């Protein structure tokens, strides 16, 4: 379905485009996902709309079958560094998260409300983990949610497809980077 509306005060939230992300075995070409995310960040900045750059520096401490509960101290050098292509600016909000979603135990919701934001456009990696969790939390905080599917990818095709076709339509609107750009007048 196409994206129908972008509110006047919409923020872009870019999730986990950092460190080793370009070297992960993603199901969509990472270079194109990154290029779309960069196009969105540039356009949002040009329109003076808020940009939030999110990185992950650990994991929730609970046991999982996959056994990943990394602490920041155990991560390789450069893991949390935002990709330079994003061109982080002083006016951007940077959020470091320690769980899948960018709203849990951060000041992101308060920051966005303070700016009068009513809608978020969420993109990044991985679709079914950081992006979906952030989108769910944004929805739970009362923000309108928009998800440009060509600006995200996952390590698992079925997980990406499930999020894109079953979960995201319940949280907001899905579409493409070009639809978002057209609606913000970029």
From TrEMBL:
Residues 10-178 form the Isochorismatase-like domain. The keyword rRNA-binding does not apply. Keywords: Hydrolase. The keyword Hydrolase applies. It comes from Streptacidiphilus jiangxiensis. The lineage of its organism: Bacteria, Bacillati, Actinomycetota, Actinomycetes, Kitasatosporales. GO terms for molecular function: hydrolase activity. Pfam families: Isochorismatase. SUPFAM superfamilies: Isochorismatase-like hydrolases. Transmembrane segments: none annotated. This is Nicotinamidase-related amidase. CDD domains: cysteine_hydrolases (cd00431). It comes from the Bacteria.
């Amino acid at each position: 379905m196409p994206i129908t509306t972008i509110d006047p005060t919409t923020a872009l939230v870019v999730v986990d485009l950092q460190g080793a992300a370009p070297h992960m075995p993603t199901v969509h070409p990472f270079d194109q996902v990154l290029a779309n995310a960069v196009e969105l960040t540039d356009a949002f900045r040009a329109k003076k709309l808020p940009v939030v750059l999110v990185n992950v520096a650990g994991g929730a401490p609970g046991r999982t079958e996959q056994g990943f509960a990394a602490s920041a101290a155990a991560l390789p050098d450069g893991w949390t560094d935002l990709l330079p292509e994003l061109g982080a600016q002083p006016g951007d909000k940077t959020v470091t998260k320690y769980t899948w979603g960018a709203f849990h135990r951060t000041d992101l919701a308060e920051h966005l409300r303070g700016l009068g934001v009513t809608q978020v456009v969420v993109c990044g990696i991985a679709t079914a983990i950081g992006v979906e969790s952030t989108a769910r939390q944004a929805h739970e905080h009362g923000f309108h949610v928009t998800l440009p599917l060509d600006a995200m990818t996952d390590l698992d095709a079925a997980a990406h497809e499930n999020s894109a076709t079953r979960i995201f339509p319940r949280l907001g609107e899905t579409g493409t980077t070009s639809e978002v750009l057209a609606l913000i007048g970029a």
